[in-house]
Amino acid sequence: MRSTATPLDLSVQAAIGRIASARRQIDTRRSTLVGISGINGSGKGYLTRDIDRRLRSRGFTVAVINVDGWLRLPHERFAQELHFQRDAPRQAATQILGNDDFDPTRG
Question: Which residue has the higher pLDDT, 33 or 3?
């Protein structure tokens, strides 16, 4: 019988396994923090709800904290349309490098 799992489903399953493994290694009096980041409209909320549902079904206690509203209000976040192809590399590099030195036009 063939698996009907999508690549996203397999990735989420792998993430759940890693979260569960990390949780088992930590004292039960402590919490495990999992962060999900991405550009506006990339599916963070969808992914978070899926992970939340799956962790709860495995008996984990989960608290979801959406920080988008704390960082920038919706009218600021959605003021201009984000062009994924143009802005995603810079945003990813900014998060990874911690600065805005990335220029995709430089070789």
Answer: 33
